[in-house]
Amino acid sequence: MLYGHDTGGFATTTAPEGFDLGDFEEVGLKSVERRFGPKDMIFAPGDPDDQLYFVLSGAIRLYKIYGDYKEATTALLKEGGVFGKLSLVEGRWQDVFAEAVTETRVASIQKASIESVVKSRPEFALKLFSSFSERLRQSDEVIESLLHREVSTRLATLLLNLGDRFGSQENGSGTVLEVRLTHQDLANMIASTREAVSKVMSEFQRDGHIETRNRRIAILDRSSLMEQASIQAGLSVDGQIRI
After folding, report:
1. Residue 197's domain is classified under what CATH number?
2. Which one in 8, 178, 186, 202 has a CA-CA gap of 20 to 30 Å to 164?
3. Stated pTM of the model
4. Tens of pLDDT along 39-48?
């Protein structure tokens, strides 16, 4: 899965530029749409890896059981996100959990159908594999590298990323996340514990960096979070957070 340079330790996979569900439909590949409610499981380890999935609306997360922590989120995806392994080899199985975070619509295409088109349409195959090549990279190394940074640094980086991808402006009073996330959810995304995250979130709120509105996180002081995120993560010359 693709992980960006400005993530909080989890993948932020979206459909590669210029390649989306419409490209599959143009070559005659039909998708099946399904709806999921919050916490509904889309697939789990051991389920057949026989489909490619597209997020049409809502948000989903991918996670795995990792290290000493019960869960570690490896991707949080919204509309336009793509998930499922690219491999078209038969007999493979899922090795992560995919769970709906909100009311979600997901489209899926059978890989057997994709394989038949790949064999007959080399130009489609080239576009497919070149566009999705980055998605083959695993996020385990990213999670492991984050374990050596302070929770406050990892959490600040995560909140900034969530604000960019899932935030909306509220009358000049900060950026409010469109998804409701518990402290445990945040802990899962940075390979930490709920207790450690709750402590840092309380500090951020006390210092005026964030606040909670109707169980949603509002970012009030982005510049302060940027400063916190840069303490150990480091900033590039273009001012973007690097992990």
Report:
1. 1.10.10.10
2. 202
3. 0.70
4. 999 999 999 9
